Every structure is written in structure tokens, then in C-alpha cells.
């Protein structure tokens, strides 16, 4: 593997990325609910842990307890001390578990950046997952303000020298796609009455990549990408 790149934890995807992701940048994984964004993000997180890195995972939709159950079933070890899971879902029991500090993660994209910076005072993280960013966008009142805030978020993450993976289930993510360094799309197609899953890299700054739609599956052991199998569109 290209030593200047880091693994996503999914060998077939690393092949499509010609070795993996360039570290210290911000990436977006987009796809409809159920396409496998969280699974992909967890592979990325755990590849960091396996590499001896500290990883921060902020969950904004799926409560931490559900995430732990689902991901442990797929064989991920979320108990590793290098892995920090922050539950910023609206239903998190803040009064019991945590102070309003964690609430900041979910307020908006600026507060998210601040909360991450504060988290860095305790420990440096080289990988961060924010899953998903959907709500952070919903809270923005104006698109121009959101654009500015998102750009400033990307810049602060780059200053922190950490690799960030964002997920989104929104159809339209023009602003984000324009400002991040790479975009990976997950899609489920119906081909001849059967569901077929396809993964495609639509943008990757600073590296060549495979731009075909490749087949992937979600199994008991997580996501498998077949970098040699094309998915033909219906
Ligand atoms: N063991 C498994 N075998 C096959 N598919 C699974 C398994 N576990 C979960 N899935 C599928 O994975 C998908 C959920 O993936 P997830 O990463 O949570 O998606 P997203 O975050 O995009 O909503 C669902 O479509 C679910 O049916
Ligand atoms: Mg998810």
C-alpha cells in the first residue's frame, strides 16, 4: 500500500482509491438510509484503531446503544480504549450521562467544530467520523451562512491534522461536495427484480481513482467491496 495513504478498512475500497485516503483531509460518504454509510464509517474508524490511532466517532442519528449492538454483531470492537464514541442524538439521556458539552456537537456545524477542538485538549485524534451531518445542515438558517460555516469547519479540521469522514443521506449535497476533498456514493439499484448495491467515487482530490460503479455487499462481517465487479445501471 502507498505509505502516504491510510486504509478505509475495506480492501476493495482501498483498491478503488488507489491505496486508500490521503490523510489530514475531509471526505463525504453519501447514500440513502440503509445503504451502509454507518458500516463504512465504522470500518474507517476501526482501521484507525487497529493502526494504533485515537478515533472519535460522533453519532447524531443512531443512539450509541443501538450502534454498539449492531456494530458488535458485525465483529467490530467498540470497547477499545482508543475509540471514543459520542452520542449526540436528540434522544440521548444527557442528564444522566453527560453535561451540555455534548449537546454542542449536535447544535450546528460551528458548535461541532468547537466541541471537537475542546475534545482535542484531552487527546489528539487522527480520525473523526460525524454520522450523519444531515441535522447540522437543517439547523442552518441561510444557505450562504451554512456554506461559510462548512468551509470554516473544513479548515479547522485540516488545522487539527486529522482525517474526517462525514456521512449524509441528503440527495443534494452540492456545498459539501464542493468543499470536501473526496466523495464516495453508495446506491442500491434494482436490476432484474433483484437489489444490487453499487459504490462509486465521484471526487478525489490529489489522487487518481477508479470511477466505475463497483459492487458491494453488507455481510455479517461488515462491508465488502468487489473492485473487479462493475454494476450496470438498470
Ligand atoms: N448481517 C447483515 N447482513 C446483511 N445486511 C446487513 C447485515 N446487517 C445489516 N445489514 C444491512 O445493512 C444496512 C444498514 O447499514 P448502515 O450502515 O446502518 O446504513 P446507513 O448508515 O446508510 O443507514 C441495512 O440495509 C441492513 O439491512
Ligand atoms: Mg447510518
Automatic annotation (TrEMBL):
This is ATPase, MinD family 1. Residues 4-234 form the KaiC domain. It holds the Pfam family ATPase. Keywords: ATP-binding, Nucleotide-binding. GO terms for molecular function: ATP binding. The lineage of its organism: Archaea, Methanobacteriati, Methanobacteriota, Thermococci, Thermococcales. Gene3D superfamilies: P-loop containing nucleotide triphosphate hydrolases. PROSITE patterns: KAIC. The keyword Lipid metabolism does not apply. It comes from Thermococcus camini.
